[in-house]
Amino acid sequence: MSDKVFIFDTTLRDGEQVPGCQLNTVEKIQVAKALESLGVDIIEAGFPISSPGDFK
């Protein structure tokens, strides 16, 4: 068994489900870079089929 804990973040997917929260592509990239700088291992960014922005 590994002693490493993996951090799996869904902010960019589930976070947009909150009423009134919409991030554009630039904002999503900023959030992803911030999560990366914090050492997050896996970033779930959305589903390409859900919108043209997510596809991009």
Q: What this model shows, in words?
A:
It is elongated, with a radius of gyration of 13 Å. The chain is mainly alpha-helical. 38% of the residues lie in helices and 7% in strands. The protein has a two-stranded parallel ribbon. The termini are far apart. It is built from three helices and two strands. The mean pLDDT is 84.
Describe the structure concisely for a colleague.
The protein has 56 residues and is mostly helical. It has helices at residues 11-14, 25-37, 52-55, and strands at residues 8-9, 42-43.
Helical coverage, percent range: 25-40%
* Tertiary shape: elongated
Mind telling me the C-alpha Rg? 13 Å
Question: Biggest sheet, in brief?
Answer: 2 strands, parallel
- By secondary-structure content and strand pairing, the structural class works out as mainly alpha
Gap between N and C termini, in Å? Answer: 37 Å
Q: State the strand order across the main sheet.
A: 1-2
Strand content range: 5-15%
What is the string of helix and strand elements? EHHEH
Please give the count of helices: 3
How many DSSP-defined strands? 2
User: Segments where pLDDT lies below 50 for 5+ residues?
Assistant: none
